Amino acid sequence: MGVGGGVIVVPILILLFDLNAERAVGTSLLMIVFTALSATFAYVRQKRIDWKVGLVAATTTVPGAVIGGFATKYVPSSFLSIILGVTIFLIAAAMLRRSYRTGKAATVVARGPQARKGVWARRIVDSTGKVFEYDAKIYSGLVFLFLGGLASGFLGIGGGLIVVPIFVAMVGLSMHIAVATSMLTMIFTSIAGVSTHILLGNVLVDYAAPLVVGILIGAQLGARTAKQLRSTGLERVFAVAVLLIGIVLIIRQLMGI
Fold first, then answer.
1. What is the SS3 assignment for 100?
2. 5, 87, 177, 245 - which has most CB atoms within 10 Å?
3. Are the beta carbons of 184 and 51 closer than 8 angstroms?
């Protein structure tokens, strides 16, 4: 789904393993580095990465991740957990409501004389011969992509939870290209975020090591599965799963469980 896995792992580390939110976030980001590397390798073979968009996006998500990492030092753990729960709940609810109409996002628009500054005409042919044509409005999403990086460092969710919807709804990528490109951007974002958390002492290697083993396998299987699903189906499965996790995390913190 292009989200790094942190949105699943951080709540699990908090809910089941009783880590404080700062250490759950830092440990998750170390795992996400390997998620991004593994999944990006899979998507390179599928030829579904928009390298130009992904690398430009990283120029704003990286500073966001560093700032977000340092911000956890000044926010109480319980409050950070509530922020995480509310954030993922709202984003998932918005995805379910809008559904983003990803088919239209892949349609060719603003060609020829109508093309505007900052709108890139893109054409990607994947390994199966499927053609994706779209206009990438990358500059309109840069501020929001910075927020994706901020969320990565602050919440340990990899940033894809926010970056994927931005790529689809604002930049104009189809869901499949957005998922693949998000993983490329996430390599740089997660490295910046985890480096900050290492300095803060928030990374637990003994927890991260077994997570990495599972992630290396899961990311490959996830990339293969995503290739076979329709964009709308992929988006709805993602949104429902995240919505439920957000609800559980909010209830736990509010009830002090």
1. coil
2. 177
3. yes
SS3 of residue 117 by DSSP:
coil
Token digits for 61?
A: 């998500």
Q: Do residues 158 and 3 make contact, with C-beta atoms less than 8 angstroms apart?
A: yes
Q: Which of 11, 172, 183, 187 is nearest to 87 (CA)?
A: 11
For residues 144 and 150, give the distance between their C-alpha atoms in angstroms, rounded to a whole number: 10
CB 252 within 8 A of CB 86: no
Burial of 46 (0-12, 13-18, 19+ CB in 10 A): middle
SS3 at position 125? strand
For the chain, the maximum distance between any two Cα atoms, rounded to a whole number of angstroms, is 60
Q: For residues 2 and 206, give the distance between their C-alpha atoms in angstroms, rounded to a whole number.
A: 25
Q: Where are the beta strands (DSSP E) in 67-220?
A: 120-125, 131-136
Q: Quote the mean pLDDT of the chain.
A: 80
Q: Give me the residues paired with residue 133 across strands.
A: 123
- Backbone φ and ψ for 256, nearest 5 degrees, come out as 70, 30
Distance, CA of 158 to CA of 57 (rounded, Å)? 14
Q: Encode pLDDT of 137-146 as tens digits.
A: 888 788 888 9
Both tokens assigned to 163? 């970056």
Residues 33 and 160 sit within 8 Å (Cβ to Cβ):
no
How confident is the model over 219-231, as pLDDT tens digits? 778 777 766 766 6
The residue with greater pLDDT, 103 or 253, is 253
